[in-house]
């Protein structure tokens, strides 16, 4: 908004120049925003956030590591069925493939209901709501996760792959078990 004071005349040419300057500045700002977005994408692809913090080391953190006894724990559906509680854990708490024995430990810590979850997990797998990735044809090297964590029906996506120290050193076979 242009304020015209008494004794001040504004020509149409001046107004046109000011509008053009404003439009040029808006275009310049949009160009800079696009470049910043591109730079942030490049920085993140190398494992850093937009502030320069190394986030590659943070990719192994789970919600429990970050929140620890806070919102994630408060939001656990205590009165839901085991099936709903198990799905909640995979959708909200775990972010990587995990052994069923570890799922059981977390379930026992969170739930007021006690009991085994293996049959519920198998049923969810048969329904296609959970999957198992078996390494080297070994049941001991089986990790559970959500179907969207799987890439090309071969293995977990990189961000959902179990920690390397839990996997065998030499992986000669990987099988996704869905049903």
Short description:
The protein is mainly α and 179 residues long. The chain contains 6 helices and 5 strands.
Architecture overview:
- The protein has 179 residues and is mostly helical.
- The chain has 6 helices and 5 strands, in the order ααααααβββββ.
- The strands form 2 sheets. A 3-stranded antiparallel β-sheet has the order 2-1-5, with no helix packed on it. The protein has a two-stranded antiparallel sheet with strand order 3-4.
Cross-sheet strand order for the largest sheet: 2-1-5
Q: Which sheet architecture does the biggest sheet show?
A: 3 strands, antiparallel
CATH topology of the largest domain: Arc Repressor Mutant, subunit A
Count up the helices: 6
Write out key terms for the chains shown.
single chain, 179 residues, mainly alpha, Arc Repressor Mutant, subunit A, 3-stranded antiparallel β-sheet, two-stranded antiparallel sheet
